[in-house]
Specification:
5 helices, 0% strand, transmembrane, mainly alpha
């Protein structure tokens, strides 16, 4: 794992743990208050709604970093090794470009959604969009890393009688 991937994984793990812990604590405290006093924290519903996208995006990026998404590899296993390598490089570059395009589009929307404020805490909507944009940028970097790994790899032919290898995947 290279430095960029370690930084992405570390940041996403931190965000995942913090957002999960904060959501859990708020929900537990708010539930206890409801049962004990019949009242609740006014902002207790709003904070988990704002943190949930951070939790989801960090999980998506971690899954991509660990190759834990579902893949369909039978097409890649059916082509010759040299073509498989170039197909992987091209595919990863397209995926990186698409994630980059989505991140750029999200960036262009930040100014628009910044004026949308949450009801109680008055936090701007751009916080959530910024989270999505950051996740898309990290996914783009991971796709570029996969393209680089495919570039550096040497083509290996598979024996047709062997169980096909599952390639590392980020989508």
């Amino acid at each position: 794992m290279n430095l960029i991937e370690r930084a992405i994984v570390g940041l996403c793990r931190l965000l995942l743990w913090i957002s999960t812990a904060v959501i859990f604590v708020i929900l537990v405290v708010n539930t206890m208050l409801r049962y004990a006093t019949g009242s609740s924290l006014q902002w207790a519903n709003e904070v988990p709604e704002l943190l949930f996208p951070w939790l989801v995006m960090s999980g998506v990026v971690l899954a991509a970093a660990h190759g834990a998404h579902i893949t369909t590899s039978f097409l890649m296993d059916a082509v010759p090794a040299a073509l498989r390598r170039w197909t992987a490089i091209g595919t990863w570059l397209v995926v990186a470009a698409l994630y980059g395009t989505l991140a750029k589009s999200t960036f262009q929307m930040l100014e628009i959604v910044h004026d949308e404020k949450s009801a109680i805490l008055q936090l701007p909507g751009s916080l959530t969009y910024g989270c999505v944009m950051g996740g898309l940028l990290m996914l783009s970097l991971l796709a570029l890393k996969s393209a680089w790994n495919a570039w550096l790899s040497t083509p290996v032919e598979h024996d047709p009688s062997e169980e096909p290898a599952v390639p590392e995947a980020h989508w």
